[in-house]
Specification:
Helix content is 21%, strand content 29%. The strands form seven sheets. Strands 12, 13, 15, 16, 18, 19, 21, 22, 24 and 26 form a ten-stranded parallel β-sheet that branches. β4, α2 and β5 form a beta-alpha-beta unit. The chain has two domains: 218 residues, Spore Coat Polysaccharide Biosynthesis Protein SpsA, Chain A, CATH 3.90.550.10; 178 residues, UDP N-Acetylglucosamine Acyltransferase, domain 1 (3 Solenoid). By secondary structure, the chain is α/β, with parallel strands linked by helices. The structure holds uridine-diphosphate-N-acetylglucosamine and calcium ion. Calcium ion binds next to loops. The site of uridine-diphosphate-N-acetylglucosamine has 31 residues, from α3 and β10.
């Protein structure tokens, strides 16, 4: 293990030009959370003395996202070597190991970083490498037989033979803090991009007889960098796979895991079953043994044990679904509490509602919660029967055990155990349908 004190520098000043976005690159989200925060989680798990994040000017949002870690600003974006140079004043007097990470490479695992720190014990620097099928765009590691690096060559500076090398620079460097400043000050910008490259360090250290050891990870996915929107999508895919695996390992079943999208804060208890094509947005919590059926969309909802949601259900923020409740297809619930055992089985809208236990809310019934200006609340007591195609015009209160007849538009409170019915009498005209058909057929015959 790493005995020396550790400081971590995260390079995140790049504009991310290839992302074509006003948002700093490392603020782009993975599972709904900025990529920089995923990396900070892993970095913090190494228990460093300090973490320094190098940002660009005018990135207040990024500084907020990484607080309370120290931020230094790189005024001129002149390369990864230039970014490390900006962090030097914040490291004055620090003589431990300095781990430099790229903010746009957020999925490195803790184990891999521990391996990289351990490799540093045999050298002045250790560099994380990976063997890739398609190394395009990455710097290539030039190594001897014992995995000591003689040089790192960027794609744009590489000759044809070097481009054939499949072992790439993943971007993580662990460097002897006592010599960092001296080595970094020797980096120049004589290369294809006219930038100061951190990747020059192995050659500089070699001049002093200090070795650079490569630590090669076998997991090509964890070293994925984010330069473009399609890289971002690839990172998302990798992260979603990890989140789903963690849930399945904890006892959650997924019929077709690849089609389930999770938010970073999704909580699903053991014993839950998630059918295909389900979207979890922010703030969803499922208690044990909940079933979420196919094609449901959930945000800001707490679902208590044994409840069943969907298929094709939509839960919006502020929703609590009680134990054993059942929501069926094409049901939308917003900012409402649904009591235990209640059933809303088909085609319904429930908004701003406090619904008791064992309510039956039938097909096509809705709360009319919005008058064009304000939202109003509907209160439904335990055991109420709301018939099909009922409009409950809020504000409204239905007493426990009330019965609302199908088709009624209810605009006044209903006392407990009463019937509310609002309906015109049905007129029946004998023989009308037969006469109507006869007329229509005759008219059609005359035309043809
Ligand atoms: C870099 C490496 C390359 C490696 C790849 C791994 C260099 C010269 N190249 O290339 O060898 O294979 O990462 O993904 O290091 N940054 C700053 N200030 C700057 C420039 C960049 O803070 O002036 C930050 C960026 O915000 C980014 C990171 O450094 O998070 C990497 O920069 P980027 O331009 O993406 O480097 P690559 O071309 O991907
Ligand atoms: Ca990059």
């Amino acid at each position: 293990m790493n005995a020396k004190p550790l400081a971590i520098v995260i390079l995140a000043a790049g504009k991310g030009t290839r992302m074509k976005s006003a948002l700093p690159k490392v603020m782009h989200a993975l599972a709904g959370r900025p990529m920089i925060n995923w990396l900070l989680d892993t970095a913090s798990a190494l228990s460093p003395q300090k973490i320094i994040v190098v940002t660009g000017p005018d990135m207040p949002m990024l500084a907020d996202a990484v607080a309370p870690n120290q931020v230094v600003i790189q005024m001129e974006r002149n390369g990864t070597g230039g970014a490390v140079r900006c962090a030097l004043p914040a490291l004055t007097g620090f003589e431990g190991d300095v781990l430099v990470l790229l903010g746009d490479t957020p999925l490195l695992s803790l184990r891999t970083l521990q391996g990289l720190l351990a490799a540093k014990q045999q050298a002045g620097i250790s560099v994380l490498g990976a063997r890739l099928e398609d190394p395009f765009g990455y710097g290539r590691l030039l190594m001897d037989d014992e995995h000591y690096i003689t040089a790192i060559v960027e794609e744009k500076d590489a000759n044809e033979a070097q481009r054939d090398i499949r072992v790439v620079n993943a971007g993580a460097f662990c460097i002897d803090g006592a010599r960092l400043e001296r080595w970094v000050s020797q980096i120049d910008n004589r290369n294809a991009q006219g930038e100061y490259y951190i990747t020059d360090l192995p050659a500089i250290a070699a001049h002093e007889g200090a070795g650079t050891k490569a630590y090669i990870t076998c997991d090509g996915d964890e070293i994925l960098g984010c330069n473009s929107r399609s890289n971002l999508a690839a990172l998302e895919k990798t992260l979603q796979g990890r989140l789903r695996r963690a849930l399945m390992d904890s006892g959650v079943s997924m019929l077709d895991p690849e089609t389930v999208y999770l938010w970073h804060d999704t909580q699903i208890a053991p014993g839950c079953l998630i059918e295909p094509n389900v979207f979890f947005g922010p703030g969803v919590r499922l208690d044990p043994d909940v079933t979420v059926r196919a094609f449901s969309h959930l945000e800001g909802a707490h679902i208590e044990s044994g409840a069943s949601i969907g298929p094709f259900a939509r839960l919006r923020p502020g929703t609590i679904i009680g134990a054993g409740a059942r929501l069926g297809n094409f049901v939308e619930v917003k900012k409402s509490t649904i009591g235990a055992g209640s059933k809303i089985n088909h085609l319904a809208y429930v908004g701003d509602c406090k619904m008791g236990a064992d309510v039956n809310f039938s097909c096509g019934a809705i709360t009319v919660n919005y008058d064009g200006f304000e939202k109003h609340e509907t209160i439904i007591g335990d055991g109420v029967m709301v018939g099909s195609n009922v409009n409950l015009v809020a504000p409204l209160s239905l007493g426990a055990g009330a019965f609302i007849a199908a088709g009624s538009t209810v605009i006044e409170d209903v006392p407990a155990d009463s019937l509310a019915i609002e309906r015109g009498a049905t007129r029946k005209i004998a023989g009308w349908a037969a006469r109507h058909r006869g007329m229509k057929r005759a008219a059609k015959g005359a035309k043809s």
